[in-house]
Structure formats: structure tokens, C-alpha cells
């Protein structure tokens, strides 16, 4: 079967944790963000926004991560958190920004942000850049959320680390379609 460019790009994509400069240039970033804005979006609420963090911003993000550590964290644990945004030349913070709507609950709006973020990541990868979606405790932290200027109703859907692939990670095994698909009623 011949494959469309989009399906090929999806099948070829892999997350890449080992990233270095240069970050995607503005034209590629804008293209990827335009792809994000094509996500399915019930009632066209546009319930997502993105923060672009690079340069000194990565140090500030690291400071926020370190400040989010629990009171009993060791200095080594804080240091690891402080350095984690420096693993890429650019971090995109995906923010679910739900509004109150009679037919679209907040969790559906978060799904739209997740779909947008997957499109964003895929577009960066299709354009030849590496990307890795990360969360962890920092994504739930009030210190980080407030430090990034999120309002009380907003949440962090992910930190997309992006840049030039340094060394490729081994391919992740993918499940067979039959493993996660069944007919209903059987
Ligand atoms: C919402 C979300 C959060 C994730 N958080 C992390 C994370 O904090 N650390 C991590 O190593 N991988 C995380 N991942 C997984 C990686 O982004 C990646 O998908 C995984 O390593 C599999 O690689 P692949 O995308 O090439 O299949 C997360 C994925 C999603 C969708």
C-alpha cells in the first residue's frame, strides 16, 4: 500500500531525549504551532496556549523546577531539577486553558490541548527536529504553575523539549494493531 506523507511521518516519528542546539527556527516553530491549532476542538473554544522558553528562560524554568522540590529534597535532587530544562535548547509549555461552556466540560478541552500538542510534536519531528513530551511532578506543581503565570483553571499538559537530535534513541517497540483493537459487539 502506498502511504500518504502524513501517515508516513506518523509511523516514522520517535521521541528523542538527547537534543542540542539549534532549536527549531521561528518559521518551523510557527508552522508546528499552526499544526497544533488544527486539533479537533469541540465548539471551537481554542482551549490551549503555548509558552516558548529558550535562552535565559531555560535557567528561569530550571529555578522554578528546583523551587518546586519538596522541603526534604536534597541539594542533588534540586540541582537535577534545576538542570532539567537545559536538556534542550527550547521547551514549549503546553497549557490547557479551559473556559466555562454548557456543552464542553474542562476535561474535553484538555483532550483538545493534548491533541494539539501531539500535532505540534509530530510537526516538529516531520520537519526534522527532535522532540520529547515530558511531565512529572513539576507539571502538577503550584510553584511551577504560578511561576509560569497560569491561572487557577489552567493546567500544564506537557513540556515539549525540542531541538536538533544529538544521538537517536533506540526505536521503541510498537504494539500490533490487533493487540489494542477488537470488534464490538464481538
Ligand atoms: C502526557 C505525557 C507525559 C509524558 N511524560 C514523560 C516524562 O515525564 N518523562 C519521560 O521520560 N517520558 C514521558 N512521556 C513519554 C515520552 O514523551 C515518549 O512518548 C515515550 O518515551 C515513548 O517514545 P515514543 O514517543 O518514541 O513512542 C510522556 C508522554 C505523554 C503523552
From TrEMBL:
EC number: 1.-.-.-
Pfam families the record matches: Nitroreductase
Catalytic EC class: oxidoreductase
Entry similarity comment: Belongs to the nitroreductase family.
Organism ancestry: Bacteria, Pseudomonadati, Pseudomonadota, Gammaproteobacteria, Pseudomonadales
Residue ranges constituting the Nitroreductase domain according to the UniProt record: 18-163
Superkingdom as given in the UniProt entry: Bacteria
Keywords: Flavoprotein, FMN, NAD, NADP, Oxidoreductase
Organism (species): Marinobacter zhanjiangensis
Needed cofactors: FMN
Protein name: Putative NAD(P)H nitroreductase
InterPro entries membership: NAD(P)H_nitroreductase (IPR052530), Nitroreductase (IPR029479), Nitroreductase-like (IPR000415), YdjA-like (IPR026021)
Alphabetical list of CDD domains matching this protein: YdjA-like
Amino acid at each position: 500500500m502506498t502511504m500518504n506523507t502524513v501517515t508516513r511521518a506518523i509511523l516514522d516519528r520517535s521521541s528523542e531525549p538527547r537534543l542540542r542546539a539549534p532549536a527549531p527556527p521561528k518559521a518551523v516553530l510557527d508552522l508546528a504551532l499552526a499544526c497544533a491549532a488544527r486539533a479537533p476542538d469541540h465548539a471551537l473554544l481554542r482551549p490551549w496556549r503555548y509558552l516558548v522558553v529558550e535562552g535565559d528562560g531555560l535557567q528561569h524554568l530550571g529555578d522554578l523546577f528546583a523551587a518546586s522540590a519538596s522541603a526534604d529534597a536534597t541539594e542533588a535532587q534540586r540541582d537535577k531539577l534545576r538542570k532539567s530544562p537545559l536538556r534542550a535548547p527550547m521547551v514549549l509549555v503546553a497549557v490547557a486553558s479551559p473556559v466555562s461552556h454548557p456543552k464542553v466540560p474542562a476535561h474535553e478541552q484538555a483532550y483538545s490541548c493534548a491533541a494539539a500538542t501531539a500535532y505540534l510534536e509530530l510537526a516538529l519531528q516531520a520537519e526534522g527536529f527532535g522532540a520529547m513530551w515530558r511531565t512529572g511532578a513539576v507539571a502538577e506543581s503550584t510553584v511551577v504553575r504560578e511561576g509560569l503565570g497560569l491561572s487557577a483553571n489552567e493546567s500544564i499538559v506537557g513540556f515539549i523539549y525540542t531541538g536538533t537530535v544529538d544521538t537517536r534513541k533506540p526505536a521503541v517497540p510498537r504494539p500490533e494493531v490487533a493487540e489494542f483493537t477488537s470488534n464490538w459487539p464481538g
